[in-house]
Write a structure and sequence with these properties.
By secondary structure, this protein is an alpha/beta fold. The protein has helices at residues 35-59, 72-97, 133-146, 154-163, 167-175, and strands at 5-9, 16-19, 25-30, 103-107, 114-116, 121-125. The chain has two domains: 5-59, no CATH class; 68-175, 2-Layer Sandwich (Zincin-like). Strand 2 (16-19) and strand 3 form a beta hairpin. 22% of the residues are buried. It binds zinc ion.
Length: 180
């Protein structure tokens, strides 16, 4: 059986399967529908789900994200490695800037690639470690530059540009890879 997330809601009237661009399978079901019915429905739809997942994989050949569907289990399996990869690369990219940060945290975020707190804690989506190098570097540099400029001002982008001269191009690429 393909792993899926079950969402029960009073507003849902039928059992419905949604497949996200990340490859996450989400099943929405009304509150009262018994689990056995949902399991049977999924079994019937198995082939359809498999064909959709294959399509997603083909459509995104160079984004390693499609191999990380992003469930809790994937996060747990990859978080240590992701933290190591991202910490090393952050250190390398920060050599030119020499900004100081408190620590780096990896998270299983659904909509964000990174963020930076005013206390100098940098959060990265763990999937970033498995993204194309230019995208990964851009997000790291973006968050690093927030340590100096806590905004998206002209001065901020000038800082980003120092390490990623083609940041506008990479930003566009990143948009096409947004998590679910
Ligand atoms: Zn920002």
């Amino acid at each position: 059986m393909i792993p899926y997330t079950l969402r029960r809601s009073i507003r849902t009237r039928t059992v419905r399967i949604t497949i996200r661009r990340t490859g996450d399978v989400v099943v929405s079901a009304p509150i009262g529908v018994p689990q056995i019915f949902i399991t049977a429905y999924l079994a019937r739809m198995q082939q359809w789900i498999a064909s959709k997942l294959l399509l997603i994989k083909e459509r995104a050949p160079d984004t390693r994200v499609s191999r990380l569907p992003g469930g809790r289990r994937d996060f747990v399996a990859h978080k240590d490695e992701a933290l190591r990869i991202l910490s090393e690369r952050t250190k390398e990219l920060n050599q030119a800037y020499q900004f100081s940060y408190t620590k780096i945290v990896v998270r299983n975020q659904k909509t964000r690639w990174g963020s930076c707190s005013r206390h100098g804690v940098i959060n990265f989506n763990y999937r970033l470690a498995y993204m194309p190098d230019d995208v990964r570097d851009y997000v790291i540099v973006h968050e690093l530059c927030h340590l100096k400029q806590f905004n998206h001002s002209r001065a901020f982008w000038d800082l980003v540009k120092q390490a990623v001269p083609n940041y506008k191009e990479v930003k566009k690429k990143l948009k096409g890879l947004t998590v679910g």
